[in-house]
Amino acid sequence: MIIEMRTYDLQPGTVPQYEKHFAEALPRRMEYSRLGAFWRTEIGPLNRIIQVWPYESLEKREGILGKANAGGAWPPAGEELILARKVRFWRLRPFRLP
Fold first, then answer.
1. Is the pTM for the entire model greater than 0.85?
2. Residue 28 C-alpha from the chain's centroid
3. Which of 29, 51, 56, 98 has the least CB density, counted as fewest CB within 10 Å?
4. 2-91 in CATH: which number?
5. Does 95 score more than 80 pLDDT?
6. β-strands 2-10, 82-91: how paired?
7. pLDDT tens track for 84-94
């Protein structure tokens, strides 16, 4: 399993506006794959949101995003609110800790 963690730094004071755009687009996006988590910072670096998207593999991710983008379901409006973004991929390990 692959976890895609997307971190966005937004223009000051625009987190509620971005969240609104995200919430409006999310139902259509969820037709393609599920959202693992969505957070916003309250302490520390402000005006930051983090999205977590789980996928079976990088290949599956590419196919899902291609379909979501072609179908007009993604990305959400609000691109002009984003100052910086960081995308990281994490591979889950096949063992469990006690």
1. yes
2. 14
3. 98
4. 3.30.70.100
5. no
6. antiparallel
7. 999 999 998 87
